[in-house]
Design a protein that fits this description.
The chain has helices at 6-12, 18-35, 44-60, 94-99, 103-118, 121-129, 132-140, 146-149, 153-159, 164-180, 186-198, 208-211, 216-229; strands spanning 38-39, 69-74, 82-84, 89-93. By secondary structure, it is an alpha+beta fold. A hairpin with a 4-residue loop joins strand 3 (82-84) and strand 4. The radius of gyration is 17 Å and the shape is globular. The protein binds zinc ion (ZN).
């Protein structure tokens, strides 16, 4: 049963406490670590640089301090990728780090994923799909029943793209975070273009760009924002 009214599902997110959201994220991470991801092989020095970059973005984000956390993982099976888990953990694969031409591009990806956390898109995705459970949460105010449905969340995060409205919101947050840290949203547009081009004629099924199709309108919106931000 699919809940036909996204607006109602989205509103229900207010009833889901952070503790439940964090548990969903932990479950998803355990799943990914067991079945999908490997340990990162990035040098410690490089990780330290990227952690500093992430901290810069997190400092201007809307989440309470300490909630946003960056995790490095190998992702031989899923290529250049990044995703946000409910609760604030953000995973980036080594391949994505290596594919980026500069740290501004990585900042664009991380900003986008921080946007998904801030807007609580993981839980909204689950609520939109959870049908009756979502309705039960709405009526009873008890979000713990959602945890039973949360087992499907990792697969949803890997295989389904977020709805277009979620992607636009995450792009907008990335744009704001890039600007707030003195960077240009053009970097994210450039990365999207390269990832999309690298996908021709066929995308690795689970890559970031397969779950983040970047139609011309999204790339154009980022470029427009970059032009507006330019002095
Ligand atoms: Zn996204």
């Amino acid at each position: 049963v699919r809940w036909g009214v996204p607006a109602a599902a989205d509103a229900t997110v207010a009833l889901v406490p952070h503790s439940i959201e964090a548990q969903m994220g932990d479950h998803a991470l355990a799943f990914f670590d067991e079945f999908v991801l490997e340990e990162s092989t990035l040098p410690a020095e490089r990780r330290k640089q990227l952690e500093a970059l992430f901290a810069e973005l997190a400092a201007v984000a809307d989440e309470p301090p300490g909630r946003l956390r960056l995790l490095f993982r190998g992702g031989a099976r899923i290529g250049p990728n990044a995703f946000a888990l409910p609760g604030g953990q953000i995973i980036i694969t080594d391949t994505m780090v290596l594919l980026a031409r500069d740290d501004d591009e990585i900042a664009g990806v991380l900003g986008h994923e921080i946007g998904h956390v801030e807007e609580r898109h993981g839980v909204k995705l689950l609520l939109r799909a959870a049908g009756l459970t979502g309705a039960v949460v709405l009526i009873t105010g008890d979000a713990s029943s959602l945890l039973e449905d949360a087992s499907m969340l990792p697969l949803m995060l890997l295989h389904f793209s977020y709805a277009r409205d979620f992607e636009r919101e995450a792009d907008a947050r990335s744009t704001a975070l890039l600007r707030a840290t003195g960077r240009s949203p053009a970097a994210l547009a450039a990365l999207f273009e390269r990832l999309t081009a690298a996908c021709e004629p066929r995308c690795v099924y689970d890559s970031w760009v397969s779950t983040h199709p970047a139609p011309a309108e999204r790339i154009e919106a980022l470029r427009r924002a970059a032009a507006e931000a330019a002095p």
